[in-house]
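I have been asked to look over a protein record a colleague put together. What it holds is a sequence and that sequence's fold in token form. Please read both lines and tell me whether the tokens look consistent with the sequence. I do not need a full report, just your reasoning and any doubts. This is what I was given:
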Amino acid sequence: MANIRSRHNTTKSELEAKAETESLTTNSKGHNNNNNDGKVPSSTNAKEKCDSMVYIIFLSLLFDLLAFTIILPLLPSLLEYYRLHDSSGLYAVLTDRVRWFQQLVGAPERYISVLFGGFLGSMFSFLQFLASPIVGGLSDYYGRKPVLLVCASGIAASYLIWALSSNFALFVLARFVGGISKGNISLCMSVITDVSSEKTRGRGMALVGIAFSLGFIVGPMIGAMFAIYSNKSSSGGSWFVLPSLLALALALGDLLVLVFCLKETLPKEKRMKQISSSLSYASQLLNVSSIFRFSAIKNVAKKDIEALRSLGLIYFLYLFLYSGLEFTVTFLMYHKFGYTSMDQAKMFLTTGIIMTILQGSVVRRLPATKTKSYAIYSLYLIVPAFVLVGLAEGSGMLYAGMILFAISTAFAVSCLTTLVSKYGNDDQKGSVLGIFRSLGALARALGPVVGSIAFWCVGSKITYITGGLLLIYPGVALQRLRI
């Protein structure tokens, strides 16, 4: 039965493509498939459904990411506020741990708040690492929409807790609830996989990338406005209530879009048949080695599992090194080049605009046959980006390195996600993309910590050049991989 099912899923897209071709050929000759009632061909309806669902997911992600990124420029001011007004005592306890790390790696005292923010970010990413594959597996049994609604509700609840966080313990609870609810990203990719074919999937994944780029451009700008306001306000007031309520409003907007616009994309006949399989699957994901091996994915060809493992390792290594640079470049711009917050904002605005333009004009139009090639090029392109940033002695070379960094980013994640989305049976797409997303979250949890240690212990030049050279491996590995 497993072999029959596997062959069925393998040839399904080919049969649909053949049927669509025959339909178009017949219509071009002036004949109807069944009768002359003038109905729109089913392939057209499928295309319209695909387009509408992809744009709904794009809108949902945009709301979600705008809400998520508002807090980023506010973190230093938030940490300062809780340093002065924390009644729970948690801030003092955690500060001692961070100060120990700061002294261990030799970072200046003024960077302790940045390191503190980095550890909070790592906690958030680690929670995503735990949540993404589990919610992906549950969506393969219950369907995409109900699990997405649970995630969106949890995210909205996290912003409500943030608005009410009169002490640091409540703020950490808000970040915890938000992190554990962030499996919605992998679910959105699963929805796109459900409604698209291999030929159109890259366009959907590119729209996800555009949502990320826009979110990380506009959201921090909104947050920066609140940061300016907070600096002018009295230190005793809960100034963060307004940005948290705005984030809550955006999250509720996301929830409404999902409730009223999103249709279920995984029919019951294509879902996992037993909830026990999902629970067993979830327990396996507590073992990190099982995630790297994609152990929860059953009844697929051995070569497909090997391809998934290779793609997962490539993705993890890329994001591990990538996130180390992404986090420590803030230290570099301030410590080596004397950049102000406005100078840094201009840098990130430049890279964000480049990514948005590329994802909107090039990545979303990539043919399926070119996806792997562009993924390889993007992985190789990150190597000189790291080297230029490490060797930079002036703003010109630094900008050159960061622009290459942005170009690589625009292609890499979208192309790798498109490549991995073609594996697994219909009732396993959520699991595959959940595990894949989980590996990325684990990389983002560990990368900033390792990057900070390297940056302060051996210096920026050695850190970035070494990181660049290590990134040759993912490019070579993907080039050699037969998929």
Confidence is low (pLDDT under 50) at residues 1-41.
